[in-house]
Amino acid sequence: MSNQGNANQANKRVALICVAVVAGMTGLAFASAPLYDLFCRVTGFGGTPQRSAEAPGAITSQPMPGQMITVRFNSDTAPDMPWRFQPVQREVKVVPGEETLIFYRATNPTDKAITGTASFNVTPEKAGPYFDKIACFCFSEQVLEAGQSVDMPVSFFVDPGILKDPKTRDVKTITLSYTFFRKPGDTRLSDRQAGTAPAERAVN
Length: 204
Description:
20% of the residues lie in helices and 32% in strands. It is α+β, with helices and mostly antiparallel strands. The strands form two sheets. The chain has a five-stranded mixed beta sheet. The chain has a five-stranded mixed beta sheet with strand order 4-2-10-6-8, with no helix packed on it. The radius of gyration is 24 Å and the shape is globular.
């Protein structure tokens, strides 16, 4: 085979390698977000709460003061999300292992239906592996019609293991935070709207 032929073959191999590398990097880019999300949910990394089917039950019917944990609730909205969003109660005291139900309230003050999705985390981050959600509005998209208000439930428990782990035995307060975003691709509302709006509907 001539030198020219060898050069052509080498160029083809280089081209194929480049194509393969680009394809691989593209695939990783699309997969990285879901994989990172899965990693956080499984490990509690970054203060990501866990998900459970049910609570194990309170560690005791008469907890000592040092066994009680205060859970505070925080709420935010993205710049392009016009909803009003806040916890119905600011904090509760819980017994590790006992299921607790609280609510967040969201209101759509605009004249258009809007779809939202919520991200969440807990602080301090080291409490993430011990904060378990049983039911949460953040597990699915939320659609609020024009002027609608809803109370959205969160059912959770704090794993009793938090009291035994040397890294978390000092945790007496946990903050659960949510941020609501407009669903990507939801074009029904082009700009943040505020001010006059239809009368709010009764809270569900």
